[in-house]
């Protein structure tokens, strides 16, 4: 909580205790642990158990990054747990869903070689109008197609079904709605997990803005990358040099990571703004140009950027951090206005 909870700290601490109790239970290292199948999948109930699996795994993914950001381990009754182990648990659940299980069955339709073929889903189980243009009534769809033993004529690619029972058993039947029915709340959490796992081991700072000491300028040259189409003709700087400072305010930028997606190289930059004065910094406005991607940790004021919604001033000697991602070299960041009180 970074000392920002004030007199609400006891309330937030109880939330934290509950969260960590749940995380320890999922890992099997708590005083009372969640049930798992012999193959290692979290099991809560027979009807659409996968909603609990993906939701719990998403929470574990996010909490692992919170712990890493705070430099903490998870304290369980069976011992301390590093953030990487918590993320590894979430990955193990996703691996199970995608086929690393006793049945070697992927519970995401269309993924792998062995996945549910008779999903409890009306549109998936009725033949396409392009194949048979005959009108299908509501009752007709049920009477003709629901009881069909054949595979789904329309593949519901990407859908996560209810999943196996407490013993890793699964019945691929259209009328077995408890196990073969897909749901958006099965899929929604797993998207977040997959996005995080795809990002690698760099981790994400979940505690923005952070209070950090004044940064030492770091000049890092990113690998050569194709010039994005959206970049103006003006050639960007070849290295992410520290941004300009203005008297009482110091601004430092650094490249933290890069990756390639769809043939483009993306860069993630961290920018630290430090109040070097002996007074409290207020009404800060930053001018940011040559920015071609999303930014987190500041409020867009239209013609400038200001403090984030959760911060209205910066004490003497303190810093805040914001990050942005785009396909170019470092953006130009400068101070356009501020007051000291």
Automatic annotation (TrEMBL):
Residues 236-246 have a biased composition (Low complexity). It is found in: Secreted. The active site is at 120, 172, 181. InterPro entries: 6-hairpin_glycosidase_sf (IPR008928), 6hp_glycosidase-like_sf (IPR012341), CBM_49 (IPR019028), Glyco_hydro_9 (IPR001701), Glyco_hydro_9_Asp/Glu_AS (IPR033126), Glyco_hydro_9_His_AS (IPR018221). SUPFAM superfamilies: Six-hairpin glycosidases. Keywords: Carbohydrate metabolism, Cellulose degradation, Glycoprotein, Glycosidase, Hydrolase, Polysaccharide degradation, Secreted, Signal. It catalyses: Endohydrolysis of (1->4)-beta-D-glucosidic linkages in cellulose, lichenin and cereal beta-D-glucans. Its EC number is 3.2.1.4. Residues 249-329 form the Carbohydrate binding domain. Residues 221-246 are annotated as: Disordered. Signal peptide: none annotated. One of its GO terms (molecular function) is carbohydrate binding. Residues 223-235 have a biased composition (Pro residues). It comes from the Eukaryota. GO terms for biological process: cellulose catabolic process. GO terms for cellular component: extracellular region. Belongs to the glycosyl hydrolase 9 (cellulase E) family. This is Endoglucanase.
